[in-house]
Amino acid sequence: MAGPMRIRAASNGTETEVKVLMSHEMETGQRKDPSGALIPAHHITELTATHNGRVVLSGQFGPAVSKNPYLQFRFKGGAKGDKVTVSWVDNKGDKRSDEVVVS
Amino acid sequence: MSRFSELLLSAVLLCGSPGAAEAAGHFPNLGRAATPDEVKAWDIDVRPDFKGLPPGSGTVAHGADVWEAKCASCHGTFGESNEVFTPLVGGTTKEDIETGRVGAYIRGDAPQRTTLMKVATVSTLWDYINRAMPWNAPKSLTHDEVYAVLAYILNLGDIVPADFTLSDKNIADVQKRLPNRNGMTTKHGLWDIKGKPDTKNVACMKNCTSHVTLASSLPEYARDAHGDLAEQNRKVGAVRGQHTGGDGDAVATVNPGVALMKSQGCSGCHGIGNGIVGPAFRDVAKRYKNDKDAESRLVGHVKNGSGGNWGDIAMPAQTQVSDADVTALIRWILSGSPEN
Question: Which of A10, B19, B23, B159 is most buried, by the most CB atoms less than 10 A from its CB?
Fold first, then answer.
């Protein structure tokens, strides 16, 4: 099971900047282990970020994204005390959702 | 380590209060004894046994705020940035925290060695942050802020939980969870005079090696990681260091005359636009602008040496430079020393 995401969200009054560090293996499915066997793919497929329940970013991730991905984005609006939630689903069906209060 | 610190300690004791008074007697009119407050301000080191650690505490949450304001621009919000410095955080696992040895470090399969993979004593982190950070304003953090920032870094490495408060009381417990705490070795020459030395130099009186062969070199992909090394070397004396800029555009546009001049060590004494020990190349070109015989005469000056034309310091004969190179250099100089 993947560890918690680290999220920071800061508002400057008009825009909110969100930085996310996910903890995920992001195995491409094309690498081989020392014995030559393929390591099965294991990566995030869908990522959603919401602001007080409204979706502000949704993305499809694939094997091209690095291990422990770092994501940074901005959206209009957002004020101190609002809640930003980031959640992902991976190709094995694992889910993770973490929430942060905008500062 | 113990021997060294004992020596240091006895030296410090010697310079202590009786010694200080004595020193004033030995060297009249030369300085004065440092006051206890001055010594206190200077003596900020924190040792692995936490001797010298000032009391205080800081939470991970407070550390995150300080981090965002003063640290994140270079180290990244999560200590992950590789832009300015190598990453602080990453490459450590729960297992490493259990064993005290970093697996990725032993196996060498981490893409890069991070601070948390390498550091063996948490006191080092505290000391370094307190002493040297932030880069542009060292020693500007309060002690509590140093505790807080350190707590934040440790939390990023999953060494302490997010609601942790780091203090002088519990920092010893954190040391017991540091991923590479058992990774420090002292059985080598750097620490122990009887240990295995870092270098091997065999003294010889006969059958000595007549020429040096390079045993290792920078790998191709890493050569320009820190820019052109030769350019960063001192300007006095022969130019040392390899050009490591790769085949980038900036390098490709440099005039071959410049490269030849640098490779032959001319820039030790001559600048292109400024005189150093010898005259600037452009001053030479200016003086001999309308002199048709200048080329052959200057070639002779380089090969055989010359003096008295530009100042008191004579130019030694440069017999190691080939005729073709000398001619090329002089033509480059007389054409106004174009840099690209």
Answer: B159
pTM recorded for the entire structure = 0.58
Span A53-97, pLDDT tens digits: 899 999 999 999 988 888 999 999 888 889 999 999 999 989 999
Chain A residue numbers touching B90 (CB-CB < 8 A): 68
CB-based contact A44:A69 (threshold 8 Å): yes
Distance CA B42, CA B34 (A): 10
E-state strands within B142-279: 165-167
Say if residue B63 is in the same domain as residue B150. Answer: yes
Contacts of A66 in chain B (CB under 8 A): none
Residue range of the domain that includes B23: 2-42
CATH superfamily of A6-27+38-101: Immunoglobulins (2.60.40.10)
pLDDT one-digit tens code per residue, B256-284 = 888 888 888 787 778 888 777 778 888 88
Structure tokens at B14: 């010697």
Rounded to whole angstroms, the Cα distance separating B68 from B140 reads: 16
Same domain, B38 and B117: no
What stretches of B272-337 show up as alpha helix (H) in DSSP?
A: 281-287, 294-304, 323-334
Give percent of chain B above pLDDT 70. 86
**Would you call A70 exposed, middle or buried from its count of C-beta atoms within 10 A (0-12, 13-18, 19+)?**
middle
Size of the A and B interface in Cβ pairs below 8 Å: 17
Side by side, the strands of the sheet bearing A6-11 are A6-11, A15-21, A70-76
CB distance B58 to B151 below 8 Å: yes
